[in-house]
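COURSE: Structural Biology Practicum
ASSIGNMENT: Worksheet 4, Part C
STUDENT ID: 0417
INSTRUCTIONS: Below are two proteins. For each, the amino acid sequence is given first, followed by its structure token string. Answer the questions at the end about the second protein only.

PROTEIN I
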Amino acid sequence: MQPTPFKLERYFAQHEFTARHLLCSSDPESMSIGELLAFEPGSIDGLRETWLGYTEHPGAPALRRELATLCENVRDDEIIVHTGAQEAIYSFMSSMLAPGDHVIVHMPGYQSHYSVAEAMGVKVSPWKAREQAGWAVDPDELEALVTPATRALVICAPHNPTGYLPSRDVFDAIVAFARRHELWLFSDEVYRGLEHDPADRLPAACDVYERAISLGALSKTHGLAGLRLGWIATKSAEVLRRMSTFKDYLTISNSAPGEYLAAIAVRHTDALIARSIDIVRSNLCLLDDFFTRRADRFEWHRPRAGTIGFVRLKHGHAEQFCAELLERTGVLLLPSTLIDYGDAHFRLGFGRRNMPDVLAILDAHLDATATSTAS
């Protein structure tokens, strides 16, 4: 199997650590190991004493106990810890799908949600978000997409890249559809917890549907991308068995220091979420003003969750706009061509503390280009 190149990741490999200013990062502000250890006095001693032998293949028991607290109905033995969310996505697709199968995928979306399946010979049907409805999806459209070969529905809620969050009624309709057709419901929930209004938080799909697989990661909700830790939670014994067997051909087991630090992070989930949401709310106020002033250039549907939004250019092409912005200012945005969604949008990130400074650079660039165009 040879998946097509992961365009977003190839773009970041080229620019993420050379661009002067990132304005498209999907993860919120991170922290040092020292800052994380400060949440628990004495934890540095535990890190020093962490044994550097092999760890248990589904994840350290102490970590899985902590992760189980993020769900309502899932036990610690119904969780498999992976090296990041990406490994878990790859493992699910590879172990639970087969050539000739069919999946329905929420789009626009994260490339590995569909490219891995396509490389295996699985047919993919897009379930398209509606931009003019604030990037909402319509569950009534799902019946027209299902076929006798359909095995799974892949969703992302809160959504990457639009920041859309379904209402509880829409979420329940999605679950009901999956249950009616006995589909696997692979629910990417890496932004769950970063709802801008906590009252909007949805349950984990694994808590409400026996064939659901909830994907979590510390990269987004906790702002700890460098720990490279993700997990799946599910009530399905079949999924647990098959994904565990497949993981033997991946990392086998995880990093012992990483799992120790991850357990600390999960114990302090509320504090880490509050830290990120404070930054997000402040930045969104600035973006509200920016997009009001720049309504002639951009169309913006304010996200309800997460740290990213999807912006439409009213004139020009996103790829050219992003390339010129990077060349002239060092500011990195992500054009929609890299997520297989035309050439009229770009992804913008608002989870970093330096966003006000970077937004000011973008503002100045727009003024300068407007002046040069006018002259």
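PROTEIN II
(use this one for the questions)
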Amino acid sequence: MTPFRRLSALTLGAALMLAPAGAALAHTPLFSCYDNGDGTVLCEAGFSDGSSASGVPVQVLDGTGAVIEESKMDANSEFIFEMPEGDYSVQFDAGEGHRIKVPAAEIY
């Protein structure tokens, strides 16, 4: 193998090894929830690469982790729910490594 071909093969190999890591970093989930001030909470979601979160499952959990409500992000990547009594959290579940839980204490 010529030195040029060896260098090209090494460069291609390195690029292929790094590509999955770059792809994984480019698809980070984003999820935030806000108190609407009227007894409801608005949650918005998406991905760092600009992908929509429409259809991604979302759950409202009580203080023990039991599911109070299950739904999916709507066509606008939003979810609105009635604020439950007591301690709760909201979980965005786009799969392993893409789950985000927002506790009630962080919803303003």
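ANSWER KEY EXCERPT:
Q1: The longest strand covers residues 40-47.
Q2: Residues 28-106 form a domain with the Immunoglobulin-like fold (CATH 2.60.40.1930).
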